[in-house]
Amino acid sequence: MPCAQGRWLANLSVVARLLTLGGLCYGRHPQPGQVRFPDRRQEHFIKALPEYHVVAPVRVDASGHFLSYGLRHPYPSSRRKRAADGPEDRVYYRISHEEKDLFFNLTVNQGFLSKSYIVERRHGNLSHVKMVASRGPPCHLRGTVLQQGTRVGTAALSSCHGLTGLFHLPHGDFFIEPVKEHPRAEGEHHPHVIYKRRREEPACGLKDSLGSARKLALRRERSTLPGRSLSRRSISRERWVETLVVADTKMVEYHGSENVESYILTIMNMVTGLFHNPSIGNAIHIVVVRLILLEEEEQGLKIVHHAEKTLSSFCKWQKSINPKSDLNPAHHDVAVLLTRKDICAGVNRPCETLGLSHLSGMCQPHRSCNINEDSGLPLAFTIAHELGHSFGIQHDGKENDCEPVGRHPFIMSRQLQYNPSPLTWSQCSKEYITRFLDRGWGFCLDDMPQKKGLKSKVIAPGVIYDVHHQCQLQYGPNATFCQEVENVCQTLWCLVRGFCRSKLDAAADGTRCGEKKWCMAGKCITVGKKPESIPGGWGRWSAWSHCSRTCGAGAQSAERLCNNPEPKFGGKYCTGERKRYRLCNVHPCRPGAPTFRQMQCSEFDTVPYKNEFYSWFPVFSAAHPCELYCRPIDGQFSEKMLDAVIDGTPCFEGGNSRNVCINGICKRVGCDYEIDSNATEDRCGVCLGDGSACHTVRKMFKQKEGSGNTRTCH
After folding, report:
1. Cβ-based neighbours of 515, under 8 Å, separated by 6 or more
2. Is position 305 annotated in a ligand binding site?
3. Please, what is the Cα angle at 438 between 664 and 279, to 5 degrees?
């Protein structure tokens, strides 16, 4: 068969130019009947498909010139110094598919995965575990598909063993995989199979509705905490959350064993982006270190409709498989279960619950875990929400005023209502997570994971999953995009059984919204225009706040914000000192005056408690000295009124301790009235003295007692 001349796109940027290739021959295009499938399982799978095509991909240069039948990207040695996203990160392929020449312009995507990232496929017990570690040079690629100089689609492929992955064209989504175990001599092509994404009926009993309610059951409070060294300043530091992700059998079945990993990593990419939003007020990186795919039911793990029973089982199971040493590359700080089971809080039947997590469970091995029901791409918000609970973040509007009527919802809102604005973290969420970290409760997140690639570009999820696919993820395989409704970047509408329906979520970033346009942050902008990341910078220190007390040692604070500039588009959040404290009005209060705790408890005298009014008196808790506990003066019970007493409250009344509570933490105070000071009085009672301000007076005298004995005293 003679080789035809073709037209190719040289694409090192968004702008394309056409080149004519003279007489490039890539060999005879294989036909389905001419290819054997040595792997029986693959043969059974492929031949059961309604349609498939056998192709022969080749690696080419940027101008389309043939380079090799070997498809592995010759990535340079990691020891060699190179520029990020440089030419060595790019690779190009040519595939003739359905009588069309497709040009793949791809870039290495190291992403957010650990280089020691492991995928485990479990078949019931440890004796049937298949583990795949990420070794060697990066081989995961993201980029665009072009035809005759025009961008026609996107691709997410792996070149680790041939080309494996997913690419999107205007007329459908296509998977590609190599013919396994195919004999191949040097200089010959390796046949691959291309087939369309299958449409499958949803499994019995599954609901694909996201629903409007985010029902969460928060049951347990943190009881004991390890002692940590604390500072008088609030320090913003980078934190790394080493994450285990587990997909249950229904997830694997629903998305397909070969495709579920790509889907999950797309979701986790979105979660990473949510925690990089500057509204969270901290530098937090979500790093996936281990992915477990349950091909069969796992012994010891029971996943049922009852969300609490499932969470209890999962937390126990994940703790049992977590290596104790933090130096182990498979060790995780938090475990995330993804399930297609329709879970429900409190009862063993389907309902609208989306997730469940322990409050403040992070860094507690038996409680640092959550479960999440898969309902399509919005799953990313569910995971972020549940991880927020692990960081001690309560719902907006629960014992705080962060969700008044009329304002748009936040990530930690109880219900996700319609609003075109991107979801962010509320001020309350920022305060909760900052307090959690300042208390030292996130101590397990301080170690930077070894050999992590955190700076690579992450492809927008809408590039991988178009509007039709997003609708199918939410409403099932028969749903399609509703063409009649405009402004997809603000609200995604899907055609379901002849009617347009919406979960009131915006289409994912990267979704096509017009000719050469895509959605970004709720707006339709030109494709390729994604603002460069802007790292945050500290603003000026604020003036010192008013003293919290008029006597007895109150507290003042000064803070600075990460707003000069504010981090944007994935830019790093500021690290360093963000809040500082000092004591003020240290002179004693008048004798007989009520204590500062008494004053705080009395504030609740006018607040009804179970429809009754009481006069409240403070109760001290040795385990939680900086929480406010009060009891009725004549009552036999006590109640926690506040998570944290007002800054400047003594940790303990009476005695010689000067220690005070700052931001809910008991701080050591020296005799110089400096926080975290080791200053003490010398033998003369002088603060930081050297003992020279006084001297010992000695005298000798003798006294005879009645018995005639003499006693000598000095």
Report:
1. none
2. no
3. 110
Distance CA 336, CA 361 (A): 13
Across residues 269-280, what is the average pLDDT?
81
Q: Is 603 annotated as a binding residue?
A: no
Q: Does 446 appear as a known binding residue?
A: no
Model confidence at 229, in pLDDT bands (50, 70, 90)?
very low
- In 3D space, the residue among 334, 132, 111 whose CA is nearest the CA of residue 244 turns out to be 334
Closest listed residue to residue 382, CA positions, set 410, 354, 362: 354
**Start-to-end Cα distance in the chain:** 120
Least confident window among 29-43, 360-374, 376-390: 29-43
Measuring CA to CA, which residue among 21, 40, 165 is closest to residue 106? 165
pLDDT tens sequence across 563-587 = 999 887 667 889 898 999 999 999 9
Q: DSSP state, 479? A: -
The DSSP result for 313-330, as a single string, is HHHHHHHHTS-S-TTSTT
Contact between 163 and 178 (Cβ < 8 Å)? yes
Residue 41 is predicted with a pLDDT of: 62
Is 694 among the annotated ligand-binding positions?
no
Indicate the DSSP class of residue 279.
Answer: G
Say whether 403 is catalytic. no
Set 99, 386, 532, 603: catalytic member: 386
Separation of alpha carbons 679 and 631, rounded Å = 36
Q: What would the two tokens of residue 347 be?
A: 């009862």
Contacts of 522 (CB under 8 A, 6+ apart): 420, 421, 422, 489, 490, 506
Per-residue pLDDT averaged across 629-634, rounded? 91
pLDDT one-digit tens code per residue, 374-409: 876 678 888 999 999 999 998 887 667 776 445 567
333 is in an annotated binding site: yes
Sheet holding 234-236, edge to edge: 234-236, 576-584, 554-559
For residues 436 and 392, is the Cβ–Cβ distance under 8 A?
yes
Query: How many residues in the chain?
Result: 714
Q: The tokens 């359905």 sit on which residue? A: 98
Tell whether 395 is in a known binding site: yes
Report the DSSP beta bridge partners of residue 315: none
> Torsion-angle region of residue 703: left (phi > 0), alpha (psi -120 to 50) or beta?
beta
Residue 3 main-chain phi, psi, to 5 deg = -85, 130
Residue 696: pLDDT band (50, 70, 90) is confident
Q: Which domains does the chain have, with CATH numbers?
A: 6-110+135-196 (no CATH), 236-459 (3.40.390.10), 460-530 (3.40.1620.60), 536-714 (no CATH)
Give the pLDDT mean for 72-81. Answer: 55
> Would the annotation count 551 as a binding residue?
no
Distance (Å) of CA 654 to CA 86, 494, 595, 667, 682? 66, 66, 10, 16, 21
The angle subtended at Cα 444 by Cα 566 and Cα 563, nearest 5°, is 10
pTM over 0.70: no
